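User: Could you check the structure of this?
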Amino acid sequence: QVRLVESGGGLVQAGGSLRLSCAVSGRTFNSYAMGWFRQAPGKDREFVAAISGSGGRLFYADPVKGRFTVSRDNAKNSLYLQMNSLNPEDTAVYSCAARQTNYNPIATFVEGDEYDNWGQGTQVTVSS
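Assistant: Sure, the predicted structure tokens are below.
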């Protein structure tokens, strides 16, 4: 088990940018595949982006492709989500998630049920 803590959310105008961070406890961060998910009010949780333990394999949901970039710094036990060209439809609580892969460098997961560690979430609000 690891502990995940998100930060970096806030209120931004449409067209603006935010960078979310997810700090992960423990000394085996690179053995975890990581993901970002979001949930808007009244909607189901939605996959946003995923990254393998090595950082070499990435996946994005179609609505964020070309605007969002997921990255990780294994030396700092940190996951990031750079969000550019934000629009009101991006308003949601964003959560990071971790899935143990036994150091598989390319494993990635896009379904929330495949992750077993979650952060508490950070609110992102985009005004029009």
